[in-house]
Amino acid sequence: MSNVLVIESSARQQGSVSRQLTEQFIARWRAAHPADSIEIRDLAVEQVPHLDANLLGGWMTPAEQQSEAERAALALSNQLSDELLAADVLVLAAPMYNFAIPSTLKAWLDHVLRAGVTFHYTENGPEGLLKGKRAFVLTARGGIYAGGSLDQQEPYLRQALGFIGINDVSFIHAEGLNMGGDVSEKGLAEAQEKLAQVA
């Protein structure tokens, strides 16, 4: 049995293609892996604070010297990190906002990319501690960006996940969604087809 952690980051609850892809992924995964546990964290519903002085203080200040705000920030970061550590499979749903990932997803990453927890420093440089996990990234994009210079989602997420040791990453891009007609239909259909193959 595997633990699957799903991270939703679309600001929209209705009409979101990334959420639609997530629903389809979960349904197919459950059909293929009925014994697996699936946990969903919705960053639009339970917002994660952006990196601030309280979180930095919680990480760097000895426990007996932490303020109440620093302890609260550290407790949330620990909770998010523990969820990721417990997962065997990570699913990130990431619509493209202004050529990149939603700021809510970046905030989540800032909480879980933690020295001594998900990576550590060695004499040869940083080393990820989450080796052996798989990740699937479901994106929704108004235009067509895959493989081009304007795609700042895939390179960034590959680097961030690889930094903590997750190198087995599959991207499923639904592209051209705002281009109308056959283009948007084709983009969604291709994403759904690939999703069916990997899930």
UniProtKB/TrEMBL annotation:
Residues 3-197 form the Flavodoxin-like fold domain. FMN binds at residues 10, 16-18, 96-99. Homodimer. PANTHER family: FMN-DEPENDENT NADH-AZOREDUCTASE 1, FMN-DEPENDENT NADH:QUINONE OXIDOREDUCTASE. The keyword NAD applies. Pfam families: Flavodoxin_2. Its cofactor is FMN. Its EC number is 1.6.5.-, 1.7.1.17. Signal peptide: none annotated. Binds 1 FMN per subunit. It is an enzyme of class 1 (oxidoreductase). Belongs to the azoreductase type 1 family. This is FMN dependent NADH:quinone oxidoreductase. It comes from the Bacteria. The lineage of its organism: Bacteria, Pseudomonadati, Pseudomonadota, Gammaproteobacteria, Pseudomonadales. Keywords: Flavoprotein, FMN, NAD, Oxidoreductase. Also exhibits azoreductase activity. Catalyzes the reductive cleavage of the azo bond in aromatic azo compounds to the corresponding amines. Quinone reductase that provides resistance to thiol-specific stress caused by electrophilic quinones. It catalyses: N,N-dimethyl-1,4-phenylenediamine + anthranilate + 2 NAD(+) = 2-(4-dimethylaminophenyl)diazenylbenzoate + 2 NADH + 2 H(+); 2 a quinone + NADH + H(+) = 2 a 1,4-benzosemiquinone + NAD(+). The gene is azoR. Transmembrane segments: none annotated. The keyword Mitochondrion does not apply. InterPro entries: Flavodoxin_fold, Flavoprotein-like_sf, FMN-dep_NADH:Q_OxRdtase_AzoR1, NADH:quinone_OxRdtase_FMN_depd.
